[in-house]
Design a protein that fits this description.
single chain, alpha/beta, Aspartate Aminotransferase, domain 1, 2 domains, 7-stranded mixed β-sheet, 4-stranded antiparallel β-sheet
Length: 352
């Protein structure tokens, strides 16, 4: 419309797109597609690119440490296209078995989709190296950046990735907003993911013409307030400086791993603090993670318990669930101390 408020909303919405693109160093704001979340962004690629480009004999490679959002869409699309889904296993420490990469990443691989940082293990993968390995065999690379974009500097041009996804609510932004970054030439070739208003130039009874990027992939009324909110969040994070955010988290996580390791019967899942991002998942002998979380909640401490939408990781380690403490730049060493002290109450409740 041409109403003043409508024009102002559009200006703020598109301004947020531009700032988000600069936050990850996209080459153009046309490469930034707004979605509901990272899950929808992966599904957009799976169904728009995957259904058009995969077939029998083709392979998609993922890893054993993926969130379900980067497993299930590829299972569904491979079932429909006849392509084969393969995965890189993890080792006993929680790192990828990169020694198997030559065997698994081949000329049959059309896409390598992998997480930059595990939401359970905290493992930080060598993203640029993995992208380069994918390109070396002619495959595209999709990076799940839901845990990396909020926690460390990310530069899509330096990574040279073809697609990258992330969500707003993990980085001081609102829920209901996510982002797909895609290389412009790839996005131009891909058909729309959903049909409706805004993603079209013309609609006639005998056919339609699609809108240009990025609106071709944004059907219907957009999440205007949420996108503007995410734009404000990236402004805030940019003021703080992402290297500083990573430095703060690194110190907190190292401290947490050191202190939690001293709790009797507590097992930390994943690599050492120096090799992990801002999450620490653990188990406690003979106490279910849900019980741990309930008692910590009574102490005013919020953690998450369950499989964290990453059941294959838990299958690998022979456990049904973990308790997970998540850290961000605003957490403190004193809060880590409170967490460790509260673990003593957990043990006392179940000491029988």
């Amino acid at each position: 419309g041409v109403h003043t408020l409508s024009e102002e909303a559009t200006r703020l919405y598109e301004g947020a797109r531009g700032r988000i693109g600069r936050f990850i160093n996209a080459g153009s704001s046309k490469e930034i597609i707004f979605t509901r979340n990272a899950t929808e962004a992966i599904n957009l690629v799976a169904y728009s690119w995957g259904l058009d480009n995969l077939g029998p004999g083709d392979e998609v490679l993922i890893t054993e440490m993926e969130h379900h959002a980067n497993i299930v869409p590829w299972q569904l699309v491979c079932q429909r296209t006849g392509a084969t889904l393969r995965y890189i296993p993890i080792d006993a420490r929680g790192d990828l078995r990169l020694d198997l990469l030559d065997e698994l990443l081949t000329e049959r691989t059309r896409l390598f989709a992998f997480v930059a940082m595990s939401n359970v293990l905290g493992t930080i993968n060598p993203t640029a190296q993995l992208v380069a390995r994918a390109h070396a065999v002619g495959a595209l690379a999709l990076v799940d950046g839901a845990q990396s974009v909020p926690h460390m500097p990310v530069d899509v041009q330096a990574l040279d990735c073809d697609f990258l996804v992330f969500s707003g609510h993990k980085m001081c932004g609102p829920t209901g907003i996510g982002v797909l970054y895609g290389r412009r030439d790839l996005l131009e070739q891909m058909p729309p993911f959903m049909g409706g208003g805004d993603m079209i130039r013309e609609v006639h009874m005998d056919g339609s013409r699609w809108n240009s990027l990025p609106w071709k992939f944004e059907a219907g009324t957009p999440a205007i307030a949420e996108a503007i909110g995410l734009g404000a969040a990236v402004d805030y994070l940019s003021e703080l400086g992402m290297p500083w955010v990573r430095e703060q988290e690194h110190a907190l996580v190292n401290y947490a791993v050191e202190k939690l390791s001293q709790v009797e019967g507590l097992r930390i899942i994943g690599p050492d603090g120096d090799q992990r991002g801002g999450v620490v998942a653990f188990t406690l002998d003979d106490i279910h993670p849900h019980d741990i979380a309930a008692i910590l909640d009574s102490e005013g401490i919020a953690i998450r318990a369950g499989h964290h939408c990453a059941q294959p990781i838990h299958d690998h380690f022979g456990i049904v669930a973990t308790a997970r403490a998540s850290f961000y730049f605003y957490n403190t060493f004193e809060e880590v101390d409170r967490l460790v002290a509260a673990m003593e109450k957990v043990q006392s409740v179940f000491s029988f």
